[in-house]
Specification:
Distance between the termini: 64 Å
Subcellular location: Nucleus
Number of helices: 7
Protein name: Protein FAR1-RELATED SEQUENCE
Organism: Acorus gramineus (Dwarf sweet flag)
GO molecular function, one term: zinc ion binding
Oligomer: single chain
Structural class: alpha+beta
Keywords: Metal-binding, Nucleus, Zinc, Zinc-finger
Length: 182
């Protein structure tokens, strides 16, 4: 199970999962109800006074723990992992691997940001080359870029402007077009 999630979780979440997995070995459990829905009393190895109840739905491979770690953090607790070990579940059910904690979720966002950044950088280089042709062009290009930057910052602050308005877009395009033609 640990090897499987090592390839899926981000490093930070994997470390948390691995700690819970290791600590599950020190837990003890007693089955208190049997059937398609079983209940287990799980005691932490370090602190015998902390007792948790884990409910396991065998047919659905669904589980819940009274500590509510999964509901709060999105990572299964040692108590659930102890029950999984007891009932022979060696592969973590997919519903307990939240997409937000996976490397694919992180890399998809990073790729999108990188693509946007690269596109903007290519445009800025073109505008910089045109703006560097003379002192006058430099001043105009510098002012236009500062104005565009100010509009981006304002849009971030004002939710209504998160999607660029036609007015802003047309002004920026006219300035850019003017730089390229001049």
């Amino acid at each position: 199970m640990v090897r499987e999630v090592a390839d899926v979780y981000t490093r930070t979440i994997f470390d948390i999962f691995q700690e819970e997995f290791v600590k599950s070995n020190s837990c003890s459990l007693n089955k208190i109800e049997d059937g398609t829905i079983s209940k287990y009393r799980v005691v932490n190895g370090e602190d015998d006074s902390k007792i948790f109840t884990v409910t396991f739905h065998d047919s659905e491979k669904r589980v819940s723990c009274s500590c509510c770690k999964f509901e709060f953090s999105g990572v299964l607790c040692r108590h659930v992992l102890k029950v999984f070990s007891e009932v022979g579940i060696q592969t973590l059910p997919k519903e307990y691997i939240l997409k937000r904690w996976t490397m694919s979720a992180k890399s998809s966002r990073q790729k999108a940001v990188a693509l946007c950044c690269n596109d903007l950088c290519r445009d800025v280089i073109k505008y910089a080359e045109e703006g560097a042709t003379s002192a006058v062009m430099y001043k105009i290009a510098k002012e236009a870029l500062q104005k565009a930057f100010a509009e981006v910052i304002a849009a971030k602050k004002d939710v209504r402007l998160v999607e660029p308005s036609k007015h802003i877009t047309i002004k920026v395009l006219v300035l850019i077009h003017w730089f390229v033609i001049s």
